[in-house]
Design brief:
It is a single chain. The protein has 670 residues and is of the alpha/beta class. It has 4 domains: 237 residues, TIM Barrel; 93 residues, Thrombin, subunit H (Beta Barrel), CATH 2.40.10; 99 residues, no CATH class; 128 residues, no CATH class. The chain has 16 helices and 31 strands. A hairpin with a 4-residue loop joins strand 23 and strand 24. Helix 1 runs parallel beside helix 2, helix 5 packs parallel to helix 7 and helix 10 packs parallel to helix 12. The protein is globular, with a radius of gyration of 29 Å.
């Protein structure tokens, strides 16, 4: 049964909307594709900004094969800053990833743009700190085909960037954890622990409790997580972001588990499908539609409460100051406490508790407490008896009347561990007679066509109506394939014939295989965006440690683009005094209602008021570290100022000598 193939035309990306999901590993990446992701970003064997989410090249190849079946793309993170002695290994890895089928590399270190790389797109990581039209336009002209903009931008600022970026795709985070600092502008982890966020090993100092004091030493906030933010949720802003020029919508979470990625990806897939149904001029960048066997609910996964951050302007309630942990969803309150159990009255009698659930509450000091459920027993109605997985006496703050939340729901986890989606591509099938027998033509919803031939003697059916029904039923049996029948046409002459069920099934299988081949032949990898020649100038002629230059090739990149002085990265240990360890749009003064602009008569007066510094003192058994908060009121930014701990300097001095870029007089003369 020979098959013929007709390839489909390629599509322009300007009208495509991309839902970009995270993957800790290849299996989670496959699940993200199956739950509607148009693209997945994942770490390779090294140099990704999540050092505990690495994957082999072989696993990435497996993920690419799965994604490319539906025209979805795989982006691999190589987005740490690199030492000179790591560049060659990173270059070889880029070639291996290209050969494995990766569609793009997400990078931070500009050295990679100077190396002999394969023909693969470079995407600018969030770590490149893109906040201005000038920076965005430069990266486009330097050859970056896609760039993720700073999370802190407003819609107006995004529109201003879109106005000058005419070839590269703009990407924006729409969900997940928020780094309090501008990405790439946080050095506090390295200063305090030697673990560099720019090297993929952030210790999350921002999630720790701090005591805030003013210039007179008065306590403003006691042991609060004042640098910890709630989580990003742009569900209500997707249409506005599309209109502002965003085309790739990114979900944070390369450390997230399978259930969370399934759930959040499905949530946004449904939202985008509704938008695309309204806007025929736009379409998804991958193929097919996804059907879900559950109701997505992002609040069931780890979250600190959702905010839209600065997209619609500065807000008061962006901080997760009480706890950086996941409290879960409220379920009821404690009704009674016994010697080895406590009774919970659920808010809804239709709810249930389960063995293995995890319950939380807030103690009298405002701290989140919790315990796993060992045994949950129904008492009738909305009442449940909980035998906790810890002695009652150790459950701090548990008391009658306290509100109980659940941050692990075993029924939900069991549901999410099963089959939760089906992604298919709509196809039309047409069966016709031919001189030699029959031909089955199949066309998918994206313009790919194929056909298969069946050599079979024509034989009239004794019951034409029944024969047509049998043919129709067998042609529609596409289960186990990538396809779902949208329309099945059987020409009248073919419908009147008798066809054995086995022959129909064989013809259908051959046509599906031919369509698979047609789709595979039509798949085109993205082409790199060529840099503008001669090289365009960088927007600044002097760079400090904030540019994260850690090797000679990165320094050469900036020199090539007209930078006269290139400072060394903070990790080079040349900045040993007090410096800005974190630069952030989040303002502690504003969040604590202490900003001078909030005072009557001066609110909103840009650049005419100045705020006195505050002091942060870290809490806990290893606390005592002091950081100065300085407020730059004109751009409305906060600097967390401190210095590198001596223990970090000693740690590096004791290690094998490393090679990395240091600012030298020669660099100043270039």
């Amino acid at each position: 049964m020979p098959a013929t193939i007709a390839p489909a035309p390629t599509n322009a990306r300007a009208d495509e909307i991309e839902l970009l999901a995270p993957a800790r590993d290849a299996d989670i990446g496959i699940a993200a594709i199956d739950h509607g992701a148009d693209a997945v970003y994942i770490g390779g064997p090294g140099w990704g900004a999540r050092d505990k989410a690495s994957n082999s090249v072989q696993d990435i190849e497996r993920l690419c094969r799965h994604a490319h079946r539906v025209n979805a793309r795989i982006l691999v993170t190589v987005n740490t800053i690199l030492r000179d002695d790591e560049l060659e290994s990173a270059r070889r890895l880029c070639w291996q990833l290209h050969d494995a089928g990766a569609d793009a590399l997400i990078v931070q270190d500009m050295a990679l743009a100077m190396l002999d790389l394969p023909p693969i797109q470079l995407h600018a990581s969030t770590q490149t700190d893109i906040r201005t039209p000038e920076k965005a336009r430069f990266l486009q002209d330097a050859g970056f085909a896609q760039m993720v903009l700073a999370r802190e931008l407003t819609l107006e600022q995004i529109r201003a960037i879109r106005a000058v970026v005419d070839h590269a795709t703009l990407e924006f985070f729409i969900h997940g954890a928020l780094c309090v600092a501008y990405s790439g502008q946080c050095f506090i982890s390295h200063a305090h622990t030697g673990r560099s966020a720019n090297r993929g090993s952030c210790s999350q100092e921002c999630r720790l409790p701090y005591t805030v004091t003013d210039a007179q030493g008065r306590v403003v906030a006691h042991e609060k997580h004042v640098l910890s933010l709630k989580d990003n949720d742009q569900s209500a802003n997707l249409r506005a972001l599309i209109d502002a020029g965003i085309r790739s919508f990114k979900i944070e979470g390369r450390y997230k588990d399978l259930a969370t990625v399934k759930n959040v990806t499905a949530h946004y897939r449904l939202l985008f499908d509704a938008i695309l149904d309204e806007r025929p001029e736009l379409h998804a960048s991958s193929h097919g539609r996804t059907r879900f066997f559950f109701t997505p609910d992002p609040e069931r996964g780890f979250n600190r409460g959702g905010i839209d951050y600065f997209v619609n302007g500065r807000r008061m309630d962006i901080g997760a100051f009480d706890t950086p942990k996941h409290a879960g969803l409220p379920v009821g309150h404690v009704q009674r406490i016994g010697a080895d159990h406590f009774d919970v009255q659920l808010a809804d009698a239709s709810m249930a508790l389960h063995n293995g659930d995890a319950l939380t509450w807030v103690d009298l000091q405002g701290h989140l407490q919790g315990v796993p459920v060992n045994v949950a027993r129904p008492l009738g109605g909305a009442g449940w008896r909980v035998e906790p997985n810890a002695p009652i006496a150790e459950l701090k703050g548990l008391r009658k009347g306290v509100e109980i939340s659940r941050n692990r729901d075993m029924a939900w986890e069991r549901l999410m561990a099963g089959r939760t989606s089906e992604r298919t591509i709509a196809v039309d099938l047409r069966l016709s007679r031919s001189d030699a027998g029959y031909v089955l033509r199949v066309a998918d919803a994206h313009g790919h066509t194929a056909e298969a031939m069946l050599a079979q003697r024509h034989e009239r059916s004794r019951d034409a109506a029944k024969g047509r029904a049998v043919i129709h039923e067998q042609l529609g049996k596409l289960g186990g394939t990538l396809y779902a029948a949208r329309e099945i046409r059987i020409d009248d002459d073919a419908a009147a014939d008798f066809l054995p069920i086995g022959a129909i099934n064989a013809l259908r299988r051959d046509a599906v295989a031919a369509l698979d081949a047609a789709r595979s032949a039509a798949f085109r990898r993205w082409l790199p965006l060529p840099p503008v020649e001669p090289p365009v100038p960088y927007p600044e002629d002097t760079l400090t440690y904030l540019a994260n230059v850690y090797n000679q090739q990165a320094a050469a990149f900036y020199a090539k683009h007209g930078v006269k002085l290139v400072g060394a990265a903070y990790e080079s240990h040349e900045e040993l005094g007090d410096v800005s360890l974190m630069i952030t749009k989040h303002c502690v003064r504003w969040s604590l209602s202490l900003c001078p602009k909030q005072a009557k008569g001066v609110q909103g007066v840009q650049g005419t008021v100045r705020a006195e510094p505050l002091v942060l003192t870290s809490a806990g058994p290893n606390g005592g570290e002091k950081l100065l908060l300085r407020f730059d009121c004109k751009p409305c930014e906060m600097h967390v100022v401190g210095r590198m701990r001596k223990s970090v300097l000693k740690q590096q001095a004791a290690e094998v000598p490393l090679t990395f870029y240091r600012q030298r007089p020669a660099a100043r003369r270039d």
